[in-house]
Amino acid sequence: MDILRWLQEWYSSHCDGEWEHESCIRITSIDNPGWHVAISLIGTTLENKQVDLIQIERTEEDWIYCKIEDGCFSGAGGPGNLEDVLRVFYLWATND
Fold first, then answer.
1. First to last CA, the chain
2. What is the bridge-based pairing of β-strands 25-30 and 34-40?
3. Kind and range of the H or E run holding 40
4. Which of 4, 51, 72, 77 has the most CB atoms less than 10 A away?
C-alpha cells in the first residue's frame, strides 16, 4: 500500500465543502530533528475511536510517538520515520 496515496484518498473522501475548511492534515518538521503529523478527526467516523499510545524508541534518531488528543491524531518521529508515523495512522484508521 502506498501510504501517501492512501492518505490523499482518505483526505479527499472527507472533503465535503465544509470539513476541509475547519479540519486539516499538517506535516511539519521538528527540531529534535524529526517530523510531526497532526490529523484532525472531528467530523469523521474516527472522531470517537480510541487508540493506545504508541511509543517506540530504537535510537535517538529512530523513534515514533503517536496518540489521539483533543480530536486529533498526533504522531511524531525521527528524521527517517515520517512514513512509520503515517503507517500508524493508516493501521489505526483501517482497523475495525
1. 18
2. antiparallel
3. strand 34-40
4. 77
Rounded to whole angstroms, the Cα distance separating 72 from 44 reads 11
Query: Could you give phi then psi for residue 91, rounded to 5 degrees?
Result: -60, -40
The structural domain count of the chain equals: 1
45 to each of 29, 38, 56, 85, 88, how far by Cα in Å? Answer: 28, 17, 27, 20, 17
Cell 480510541 maps to which residue? 50
Q: Summarize pLDDT for 33-44 with one digit per residue, the tens.
A: 999 999 999 999
pTM assigned to the model: 0.91
Let me know how long the chain is: 96
- The answer to whether 75 and 91 are in contact (CB under 8 A) is no
Q: Which three cell numbers stand for residue 14?
A: 472527507
C-alpha cell at 38: 497532526
In tens, the pLDDT along 66-81 reads 999 999 999 999 999 9
Confidence of residue 12 (pLDDT cuts 50, 70, 90): very high
